[in-house]
Amino acid sequence: MLETMSWRYVLFYIWLKQAYLSQDMTNAMAVVPESQRKSYVKTANELVDNMAEFDYYIRTPKVYESYLYYEKTLKSIDDLVALLA
């Protein structure tokens, strides 16, 4: 487990990455073919929702839920990258 003082750095890192990711997903939308846009938007929204839940749970002492949404976030990122490849 992380020390209590380390959590604020973890939170800051996640917020920073979330802000960059949001901009990157907007830019990537321009290169997605029209036929795949609906699935891209669905997957991107799923990623944002998972990151929001992950952000919520890392602020609480609920370790299992934090880990669960961490894994869901990673899977959503993998799915989004697979759509762009």
UniProtKB/TrEMBL annotation:
GO CC terms in record: chloroplast thylakoid membrane; extrinsic component of membrane; photosystem II oxygen evolving complex
SUPFAM superfamilies per UniProt: Oxygen-evolving enhancer protein 3
Keyword Thylakoid carried by entry: yes
InterPro entries named among the record's database cross-references: PsbQ-like_dom_sf, PSII_PsbQ, PSII_PsbQ_pln
Keyword annotations of the record: Chloroplast, Membrane, Plastid, Thylakoid, Transit peptide
Localization annotation: Plastid, Chloroplast thylakoid membrane
Pfam families xrefs: PsbQ
The organism's place on the tree of life at top rank: Eukaryota
Keyword Chloroplast recorded: yes
GO MF term set: calcium ion binding
Any one biological process term the GO annotation gives: photosynthetic electron transport chain
Family of this protein: Belongs to the PsbQ family.
Name the record gives this protein: Uncharacterized protein
Source organism of this protein record: Escallonia herrerae
